[in-house]
Design a protein that fits this description.
The protein is an alpha+beta fold. The relative contact order is 0.13. It contains eight helices and 18 strands. The two termini are 28 Å apart. The strands form four sheets. Strands 11, 12, 13, 14, 15, 16 and 17 form a seven-stranded mixed sheet that branches. α2 runs parallel beside α4. Helices cover 23% and strands 24% of the residues.
Length: 377
Amino acid sequence: MASRENWAYDAQTETILASGAVRAVGGTHRLHMGAEFTPLYDSCCILRRNLLRSGVPVWYNHGIILQGGRPMRDLKNTCRVAVVQATPVMFRKDKCLEKALRLIDEAAGEGAELIVFPELFIPGYPYGMTFGFTVGSRKATGREDWKMYYDNSLLADGTEMRRLIRRAKERGVYLSIGYSERDAVTGTLYNSNMMIAPDGTAMNHRKLKPTGSERVVWGDAERDYFPVMDTPWGPMGNLICWESYMPLARVALYQKGISLYISPNTNDNPEWQDTIRHIAIEGHCYFINADLVFRRSDYPQTVSGTAEIAALPDIACRGGSCVIDPFGHEASVTVWDKEDIIYADLDMQKVPASRMELDCVGHYARPDVLELRVNEK
């Protein structure tokens, strides 16, 4: 179905015909409803079905609007994923990098094809610290600690990231890793996640909206919103921690057909375990839940945070990493209170099979009623 040709639909013969009643604009085909061309809603369903059979992905609308995209292609049957639940060397990017490289080697040695690290693995998540911020004022001692964290954050194209890309290429693996990103131009930090392919392709994602007091450390993303990486197992995307509580952000990924939903996070709340199962069912995709684990004793010496850190529980973040399948069932063990690499062999054919009765951006959608417009940057 060429994007610059005009088309109409013959409901009796279930065929697509050239017609002056249709105008094509870019990749969207708008069928003008008139007295001479008024197929019923059922006919629209037939049209969509036949176009899909022809390899043309479409939506129907009372417009009627047919939106082109990529058809869901065949997926490699299995994906061996390694979810790394590990403790960062807090506020030490050099030591975090060394540990990440070692864990990549270990996971690749066990046959992992996709290796997933948690949120802010480099240089760690400063849970419980305020960096001297109160409403309307800052403390000089907090500024010193923030500067230490800033100095240990990474450039997206810096030396440390290039080493991670090189290791992924050497090992022939897909890699996802959370890190604190230092902007190359401004003084702003971003809570970011990098996806890396075996050919060295790297796709950065910045957290859209830092959660709560995270906003005194990291800025709102102004680009790198919803990158999706093509893999043998289908499109792969990620949302960081509570971004997954943003319904429209989830839909932005679903609209790109993701089969692998990566969630680097620092969330050991029991309610989160319910959330990840809901999302796996909603998107009918694999939900890869990669959480940090760290103790109060893992924090470095700070200038402003001694009392804040002392008030933390012994285990500040308990983990809870796991993989959930497209039906909301566990595809791996769930690990708490310790470092571990969780391996799971994912049956990727469950993804299309699970969408038989629910495809929330496909046959279970109503774009004539509800529409999401995404500002991609």
